[in-house]
Amino acid sequence: MTSKTIRLAAGIAALAACTPAMAKDEPVSLTKCDASHGTIAVVDGDTQGWTKYGLGSPRELIAALAIESGCFTPYQPGGAPAAFLMNVIAGDKEEVNKGIEMARSAAVEGLVRSGAASGLLRSTPFGGSALGLLGGLGGRRKTVAAGIRLISPASGQTVVSGLGEVSKSTITFGGNGGNAVAGGILGGAQSAGYANSSDGKMLVEAFIKAFNSVSAQGGALASAAPAPAAAVTAPAAAPAKAAVATRMFASPDANSAVVRSLRAGASLTRTGQRQGLFIEVDDGFGTRGWVSVEDLN
């Protein structure tokens, strides 16, 4: 077994050991960490179910969870690129479960492409079940759900995923009694209107559960964490926008790994690097990748 296979096996073992069973409708509290797992840049995923409830992006809420828990460090503009891209989605259970399943498939695909998947699954008894931990949850009751995918900007692959679902909120906003949300988390919830409705409260609780699930998978994160990268100064930075819905690739090749999807109108910054029909861009959240020049304004 190669050292790379051993590291991958260790990561999956940690995921299997650290991912807690999802308890529904029980009081939830935010997990605390002794040290940060790395810098994160929070971006909205394709399933933006919060808009159905008249709510804004949960980016500030997620950043508040990262700071309050100590589990991650939010990316600061002008600093070194983020170690992980934190992709957040929300909606009903079926929508979010589908999004998480797509993330699981991407992770498995990455293992297969690396050449380590078959040997890993043969040599690790729990391999199959560990890779399937993020699949369907069953049950018929409709719930509000939130999902978080932690993606490596270097490879475009999902490192870990977490899912939270709530059918009845157990939290309150402000105050000191009961299961109250206060401080920075309250501010993050208020900034996008989550504190003003029952649906918002449920989504806050669902995001806390999803965040806890991701934070608990520290072993997998440690095995996948990239080496610290120095900040890169773009030689010829210039603004750009996505002319159409498109994708950001890990290298100037449409067959390379997809770092993230871009919506039409998304603001980008050209780094000044170009190869063929591809231009390197920065999304403003610590992630760089290559986009076809034909898809940019």
Number of helices: 8
Unreliable residue runs = 3-24, 107-140, 229-235
Strand order of the largest sheet: 2-1-3-4-5
The main β sheet shows up as: 5 strands, mixed
Number of domains: 2
Proportion in β-strands: 15-25%
Q: Can you tell me the overall shape?
A: globular
Structural class, by secondary structure, is: alpha/beta
As a percent range, the share of helical residues equals: 25-40%
Instruction: Kindly report how far apart the N and C termini lie.
Output: 48 Å
Total number of beta strands:
13
Tags for this model:
globular, alpha/beta, four-stranded antiparallel sheet, 2 domains, 297 residues, 8 helices
Would you summarize the structure shown here?
With 297 residues, the chain is an alpha/beta fold. 32% of the residues lie in helices and 25% in strands.
